[in-house]
Amino acid sequence: MARRDLEDDVLPIPNGWFAVGWSHELREGEVKPIHYFGEEMVLFRTRSGAAKVLDPFCPHLGAHFGHGGRVMGETVRCPFHGWQFDGTTGECTHIPYCERIPKAARVKSWDVQEKNGMIWAWYHDQGEEPSWDFPELTEIGHADWSEPTFFELELDAHIQETHENNNDPVHFQYVHGMPETPPSEIHFSEDGRHYQIVSHSERETPFGTFQTSLVRDSWGLGLNAIWTKGIPDAGSLLYAATTPIDHERVHSRWLLTATRNCVDFVGEEIMTGLRKGVLDDFPIWKHKVHRARPVLCEADTYLAAYRKWARQFYSHPIGDAPDESGR
Fold this sequence. Notes:
Blueprint: H1 3-7, E1 16-22, E2 31-36, E3 39-45, E4 51-54, E5 70-72, E6 75-77, E7 84-86, E8 92-94, E9 112-115, E10 118-123, E11 149-156, H2 159-164, H3 169-174, E12 184-188, E13 194-205, E14 208-219, E15 223-229, E16 236-244, E17 249-258, H4 263-287, H5 301-310
Antiparallel strand pairs: 1-10, 2-3, 3-4, 5-6, 6-7, 7-8, 9-10, 11-17, 12-13, 13-14, 14-15, 15-16, 16-17
């Protein structure tokens, strides 16, 4: 067996809310095939404007709704024989050539919500209902904040690995070129699903030099909000959503916005820096292995805390969670 296979501990797909599309890219009546969590699905927007996700294979003869299917009111119509399936329940509501609908004529429906410019689906490998939520951010779409810009990439990595960078302030020095490791602190929410890390550094801007804070909020393993704060009356936001395509590949989406009063002077510079920071990490993620039992040092306090925190999002977590001393 190759050394990489021996060294790499394969992680399962975690449970939680994950982005499956941009809101602005799904028009009313549009039907799209999507592939996440190692599964094929169909995403569509009903005539009332609601985004829906269903398992895509018709229980009749197996046609895929995402290839030729059509929205009919609040349902998606199978392209093969015209059977219609409700976007909320997954039940067949109409067969055009038969009055009686078989009880087994239904497909799995996914819990979906839409906010912060994205469409989210709930994944749980045991089929459990959503057990937590995340907030709507007032900055996105606010009149005082710039029109968001978007970019997205697919990469070879596991979602826990991409998220772990938030808890690794040392890598800011060696990967992102910071002159030294920034001082930071971490806070966990009462329910344990959310945490915030704040790192402090000095930043030079056209308005002067300021002591700024990089505030990084996380909800589950697929969602980060990163604020730059400390410049008077100015700020920026990077909203990042990462979704497992399968065990080894992820789809990452980033939304960037800044306050309008600074976007032309500071905001674009900050957003360019944040975008570059994301791309700096790609070679590391692509070629590394995952160690379920990492050898940590005493300075890896936040990494140890993150590994313990991340375990709650797996039905069957692997590896031992190290303590804060790294032992």
